[in-house]
Design brief:
Length: 69
């Protein structure tokens, strides 16, 4: 596996662990309440943003793979 894919894998595994741990703690401490309308909206924005950012990062890296510095 080329090093740019390993970099993305590492960033999203380690960052994802931190990200989802923080969300879990927020839900457990009732700071984020998925049962409420605002909580559902906030959770969907957070998760959607994570997925969209991952997608854009992967597409960007894929498009730049052919360009060697």
């Amino acid at each position: 596996m080329p090093e740019h894919w390993l970099s993305i894998l590492y960033q999203y595994v380690m960052g994802g662990l931190f990200f989802f741990t923080v969300i879990f703690v927020a839900i457990k401490n009732e700071v984020l309440k998925p049962s409420s309308r605002d909580g559902k909206f906030t959770l969907s924005i957070l998760l959607g943003g994570f997925v969209i950012f991952l997608f854009v990062h992967v597409v960007w890296t894929y498009c730049l793979m052919g360009i060697e510095a």
